[in-house]
């Protein structure tokens, strides 16, 4: 994968000054990590995160200057090295580095080495996880848009958000297509990964109402059935939940399309970088943004029958 740069360098797009009507810093002002945190909160409020989640700033000093920001799905050591090599002062990842409690960040473990590399290189780390899933323009919104869904609404409403905010989305295609053609459409919009796309259902069956959930969505089967979706697109479908969903299906529906966790969430990164760039530009900040080119899907190859 190649890194994706976004053309959102703030005042450079407005002849060197603060945009008309904006209240951001003047020419030459330093953009700080605190400025980035305010912009991120505007787009993906921490109040939208699920109660089990850990989002927000993981490492970094709020007063530190930031001129380059990289987006990635996972805060792996390879991704961190890519960010450091590019000179990013901030790495924004979808997945948390420290989701569970720890008693040590010694550099004797992978996570400890990650923490040390971030701090020693002066690279801040910020997590936008389920708040990025739930927000308008979030992970599932981007997936729904890429598939051409119309009038998409959340599968489950956010506890502390607007009606249009929540986990997953369900909407309708402009016209019905076969499950086989729909699965090919899903395959075509995702970055290439070893696992490809797995499908459960009649290849020639027609689908129009589509439910999606970027990342692991096997906890939402009740909501998917209640939405009367013909097909459900999500990631990490395990044997038992998928088997039970098939057993509970009515007339074979909802069909299942199982995709890579990484691939389903990577789609959000360019859109997220562009959205953050727009907010920063409106506030008069000059920041370069880039999407990581590292494929952090954990699988390298797959064997299939035939």
Summarize the structure.
The protein is built from 10 helices and 12 strands. The chain is of the alpha/beta class and 306 residues long. About 5% of the residues have low confidence.
Description:
Strand 6 and strand 7 form a beta hairpin. The strands form two sheets. This protein has a six-stranded mixed beta sheet, sandwiched between helices. It has a six-stranded mixed beta sheet with strand order 6-7-9-10-11-8. The radius of gyration is 20 Å and the shape is globular. It has 306 residues and is of the alpha/beta class. The longest helix has 15 residues. It is built from ten helices and twelve strands. The two termini are 28 Å apart. Helix 1 crosses helix 10 and helix 2 runs parallel beside helix 3. Helices cover 30% and strands 23% of the residues.
């Amino acid at each position: 994968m190649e890194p994706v740069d976004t053309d959102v360098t703030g005042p450079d797009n407005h002849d060197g000054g603060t945009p008309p009507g904006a209240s951001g810093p003047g020419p030459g002002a330093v953009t700080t990590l605190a400025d980035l945190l305010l912009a991120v909160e505007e787009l993906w409020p921490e109040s939208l995160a699920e109660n089990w989640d850990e989002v927000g700033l993981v490492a970094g000093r709020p007063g530190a200057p930031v001129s380059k920001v990289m987006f990635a799905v996972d805060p792996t050591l390879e991704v961190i090295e890519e960010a450091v090599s590019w000179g990013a002062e901030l790495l924004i990842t979808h997945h948390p580095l420290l989701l569970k409690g720890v008693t040590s960040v010694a550099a004797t473990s992978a996570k400890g080495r990650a923490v040390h590399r971030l701090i020693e290189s002066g690279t801040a780390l910020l997590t936008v996880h389920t708040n990025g899933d739930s927000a308008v323009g979030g992970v599932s919104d981007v997936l729904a848009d890429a598939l051409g869904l119309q009038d998409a609404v959340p599968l489950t409403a956010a506890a502390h958000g607007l009606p249009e905010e929540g986990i997953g989305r369900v909407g309708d295609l402009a016209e019905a297509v076969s499950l086989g053609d729909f699965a090919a459409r899903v395959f075509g919009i995702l970055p290439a990964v070893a696992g490809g796309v797995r499908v459960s259902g009649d290849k020639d069956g027609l689908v129009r109402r589509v439910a999606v959930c970027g990342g692991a969505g096997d906890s939402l089967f009740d909501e998917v059935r209640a939405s009367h979706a013909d097909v459900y697109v999500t990631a990490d479908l395990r044997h038992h939940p998928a088997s039970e969903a098939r057993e509970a299906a009515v007339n074979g529906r909802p069909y299942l399309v199982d995709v890579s966790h990484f691939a389903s969430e990577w789609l959000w990164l360019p859109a997220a970088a562009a959205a953050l760039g727009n907010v920063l530009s409106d506030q008069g900040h000059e920041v370069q943004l880039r999407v990581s080119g590292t494929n952090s899907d954990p699988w390298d190859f797959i064997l299939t029958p035939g």
